[in-house]
Hints:
about 375 residues; single chain; about 35% helix; Aspartate Aminotransferase, domain 1; globular; binds pyridoxal-5'-phosphate; alpha/beta; 7-stranded mixed β-sheet
Amino acid sequence: MNRPYNFSAGPAAMPTEVLQQAAIEIMDWQGSGMGVMEMSHRGKEFMSIIAQAEADLRELLAVPEHFRVLFMQGGGLAENAIVPLNLSRGGLADFVVTGSWSQKSFKEASKYCLPHLAASNEADAHTTLPAPGSWQLSANAQYVHLCSNETIHGVEVHELPDLKALGSDAPLVIDFSSHVASRSVDWSRVGLAFGGAQKNLGPAGLTLVVVREDLLGHALSICPSAFDYKTVADNGSMYNTPPTYAIYMAGLTFQWLKRQREGSLSAVAAMEHRNTAKADLLYGFIDQSQLYLNKVAKDCRSRMNIPFFLRDETRNDAFLAGAKARGLLQLKGHKSVGGMRASLYNAMPLAGVQALVAYMREFEQTQA
Ligand SMILES: *Cc1c(COP(=O)(O)O)cnc(C)c1O
C-alpha cells in the first residue's frame, strides 16, 4: 500500500506491513477469539507474545545474558526520575548535557540525587559533542547519564564512551529513545539503556529498559514499587499490567526488523547500513544547497533526526504546504529550535528520502 512519507519525530511512522498485520489480527489474534487489547496479560496467549518480543529484541540488539529487559510505562521523561530513584543511592550522578533531552534529565534528577554537570554543549547551542576526554567525571558518581541521540537538536553519539578508560567506574546510562534499533549497541560500555517506544519501535505507552543485573536492588525507599527495576524484573514486567497492546505492536516491529537481514549482515547492521545511506543523502543535499542549512557539527550529526533551516525563513510555510501536497508529512521543526526536521527512523525507506530531496531541490529552484 502506498502511503505518504511521514517524517514525524514521534510518535512516528511504523512499517506498513506491521500495521497491516495488526489490522488483520485486531479482533481475533491467531484464532484465540480475542484481540490482543482484550486478553489477560497473564493468559498463555499474551505470555507468548511478550516472551517472543523479549527474545526477538535480545536477538536484534545482541543483549547479553547478564542484562534484564523490562517493559515499562511512563516514557523517557518518567525514566528521568526512575533512573536516579533506582541507581543514585541518593548520591552523586554525572550528566553530559548535549541537548533538550539530557538537559531535562539533569534537572529532574536533582529531586532524587546530586546531579553534577560533567560536560555541556550549551555554549554551542547544542550543535557539537564535548569530547569524552574533556568530561569532568566525579570520582564517586553512581552513574553517568548520556543521551545518545538528541531528537530535537539532531546530535548523535556515534561511538559510546568507554568510561573505564576515562577513569570512571560508574555505569553508563544512555537514553536511546530515538535511535534504538537503528544501529548496534556496545553493551560492554553500558550499564542501563532506556527508551520510549514511540520513535523507532512502536506506539507510545511502552518504555524499554535494558539493565545490567548488578544494578538491580538498590532503589531508594521512596521509589514507587511499580518503578523499582528489581520488582519489575522479578515479576517479568508483570508487577502491574504492562502496556499489552504497545508490547504486541513493538513485537510485530521486531519481527519485521528480523526480516530486514541482508546477506551476512544482521538485521540491525542492515538497518544501520540503510540509515547511513538515507542520512548521507539528505545531509549531502543540504550541504551543497544555497537555501538549506544544517548547523550540527559533521562528526555528531544524527542519522535519525535531521533538523534543517531555510535561509529565508519567510518561506517556511510555503515549504511545508508544498511538502504536504506531495505527501511529505510532519516536517515542521520542534518549536524550541524552529525550522524543519526530518526524522528518518527505520520505517522510513530510502525512497522517502529521495522524494524529500527531489522536493527540496525543486522548491529551491523555484526560489531562484
Ligand atoms: C521523545 C524522547 C523522550 C521523551 O519521551 P516521552 O515518552 O515523551 O517521555 C526522552 N528522550 C528522548 C531522547 C526522546 O527522543
